[in-house]
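Progress against Task 2.4 (sequence-to-structure conversion) is shown through the following example record, which the project officer requested during the mid-term review.
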Amino acid sequence: MAFTLPDLPYSHDALAPLGMSRETLEYHHDIHHKAYVDNGNKLIAGTEWEGKAVEDIIRGTYQAGAVAQNGIFNNASQHWNHTQFWEMMGPGENKAMPGELEKALVDAFGSVDKFKEEFAAAGAGQFGSGWAWLVKDKDGSLKVTKTENGVNPLCFGQTALLGCDVWEHSYYIDFRNKRPAYLSNFLDKLVNWENVAARMG
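Structure tokens generated for the chain above:
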């Protein structure tokens, strides 16, 4: 099936009071994400991947150990990553974390604050472009990971519970070069914790 750019689950200015401006979402969603969709559709046209689900394309084109992935993978994975990213955020300050998610984070990391520290450190420590993730691993355990460029948890048989884009286009308009500040703001103000909890299955 052809890739399509999803609408944002909220207005372009809905996250502005929480630190993600309308300008950032216009560039990030309307231009960057749309480019992954358009380029991905061109690359899969006439190939074995045309008509396949994006998840199958990602798993089928990922090359383990290759830093520079192929074009089909890069565009398919970034389309998938961004689709999840928009859903993982939401407007409204002080969004409560569901009890079952809080318990799972405490069990896995010792406390919610420790989880946030580990997640923020992963994002800040990702050299160059990439993503920080909270994943449910194949054995059911929760882990914080980081991936380069567009690589995502699907490549490793993991379930993505929370992802944060640490490519510069995600934060440079609002936070300039202050990636750690962007990550802290993301965790404290932007995450839709109910969405994260729903992904635990």
